[in-house]
Amino acid sequence: VFLDNHDNPRMLSKFGAGREADPAVRTAIGKMLATIQLTMRGTPFLFQGQELAAINQHFSGVAELRDVESINRHKALIESGMTEADAWAQVLAGSRDHSRVPMRWTTQGGFSEATPWLMGTDDAAGFSAEEQMADPDSVFHWHKQLIMLRRRHRALTIGSLEWVHPHHKFYFAYKRKLGDEVFLIECNTSAKQRPRPKFSGKAVPVMGGPRRELMEPWEATVSRVVG
Questions:
Q1: Any idea where the domains of the chain sit in the sequence?
Q2: Cα–Cα–Cα angle for 218, 223, 227, nearest 5°?
Q3: Contact indicator for 219, 208 with CB cutoff of 8 Å
Q4: pLDDT tens digits along 50-91
Q5: Sign of CA dihedral 90, 93, 94, 98
Q6: 154-226 has which CATH code?
């Protein structure tokens, strides 16, 4: 189960669609994506930066890119008659370099005192490894809690998966079950508050609660089903 890898832009930016410049939105989406990936059936593959809520870069032009596919695509689009603005927008949206920049270890980067081969442009406060590790409410620590939960409960690794209200748009929910152990995972995958569909059972939140009638934008909740 993967969301990011070295050949794709960041999934968080695909969901955020520009809203991820807001630190609260960035954090919420980062936690929601982590919740899905680490409670879904299958073997999770975490790519560097996901645990820090990494987003796409703000490259200003093709000269800043190193991805040969993006550079060649830009050239082909220009030769086809497309304007520079439109060609750059297409290339920037799909460039593989978004996920290939050096890891942000500190607020100053921390990767090297030399000039990196590929420069990152994300300098938002609160999202370096140093800052994320120091913040107990960060996306980094949310990942750690989910990994710990997954290790402690086999229902989240080898349990069955059953979709819950699959026809509710933006409500992405499912149960993981193994024997008497049942978990309910609920996510609001939209930028708006959404009503939480009724659940026939008692669900006690273990991460992300409480379970209010309205789900906040990008909210993710993991609950134990009891009784």
A1: 11-59+95-147, 154-226
A2: 150
A3: yes
A4: 999 999 999 999 999 999 999 999 999 999 999 999 999 999
A5: positive
A6: 2.60.40.1180
